[in-house]
Amino acid sequence: MDFRNARARQPEIVRSVQKDAKYSSELSEDLSDILRLTGPRNWIKYNSLTKLLAEISYHGFASLNNLQTLGEEYTGIIQVDSVYKQIPSRLLQLSAIILEFGGDALYLKVLQKLGKYVEEHEDIVPEAKKKIKALILFMQVSPSYIKALHKSLFYLRSDKYQISKRLTGINYVLIRHWVQPEFSLYGYKILGIVTFMQVTFSAALAAFDTWKEHKRKQYELSKSMKHFVRKEFHTKANESRDAPQCILCLEPRMAPSLTPCGHLFCWNCILDWLDERDECPLCRETLKKSQVIQLQNYS
């Protein structure tokens, strides 16, 4: 049997999800109360898992027994496969449940492991590490925007409300669609447009903030580099000013060279001087180029 003409609409799907969320929340509270009886230590350690256990138990029980959830029964809808022919297999339904309620945690865990691997892997060059880390950071914050965009698409097209249903191809159809009351869906379409605009604006604002932070870091780096260069310049200038000077060029001595009479000059300076006259520039003693000794490791 083909159920394409009996597709569930936004009102039935939304009410079904809301009803199921209400019942699973009550089950989560009951499990939390039971866990509290085992002691405060266990309650603090495992209480965060009660919601996940409640969701999987609630939806898993219905799927394993080929039953509707209470929310689906309340709104008169049922799950069918991607071609609208039959009820999805238990494995497909359980996969959708795990993706819906544990997919986010699994996704973030994989990204965390990937980031740790990139950080510790020495074969990856620093520039590549930087780009991969930026990509991982983007992937960590992207699910919220993807979910919101997906929800806006659902409001506009009455398609699939949950991403897990889209990934597994599961659809909702009305059991008795011929007796269902008519609803105006224009409000949902407007909500879809508003949701899309809100997500787009939020994403653009986040991108602008990221760009500003990037520019700020570039400015700080440039400022620190300028400060470093300026400091190095002053340091070298002070060193040059404090270094012994050559009497010929009046600059810090380069390749200090010693004459037999005990005077120090730059190597090039004293050789240029001796090209003009054969005497020491200071004491006027007779001096030849062969008598000048260049000093090593002397400052």
TrEMBL record:
Residues 246-284 form the RING-type domain. Pathway: Protein modification; protein ubiquitination. PROSITE patterns: ZF_RING_1, ZF_RING_2. Its EC number is 2.3.2.27. SUPFAM superfamilies: RING/U-box (SSF57850). It catalyses: S-ubiquitinyl-[E2 ubiquitin-conjugating enzyme]-L-cysteine + [acceptor protein]-L-lysine = [E2 ubiquitin-conjugating enzyme]-L-cysteine + N(6)-ubiquitinyl-[acceptor protein]-L-lysine. The keyword Transferase applies. CDD domains: RING-HC_PEX10. It is found in: Peroxisome membrane. The keyword Signal does not apply. It is a multi-pass membrane protein. InterPro entries: PEX2/10, Pex_N, Znf_RING, Znf_RING/FYVE/PHD, Znf_RING_CS. Keywords: Membrane, Metal-binding, Peroxisome, Peroxisome biogenesis, Protein transport, Transferase, Transmembrane, Transmembrane helix, Transport, Ubl conjugation pathway, Zinc, Zinc-finger. Pfam families: Pex2_Pex12, zf-C3HC4_3. PANTHER family: PEROXISOME ASSEMBLY PROTEIN 10 (PTHR23350), PEROXISOME BIOGENESIS FACTOR 10 (PTHR23350:SF0). Belongs to the pex2/pex10/pex12 family. This is RING-type E3 ubiquitin transferase. It comes from Musca domestica (House fly).
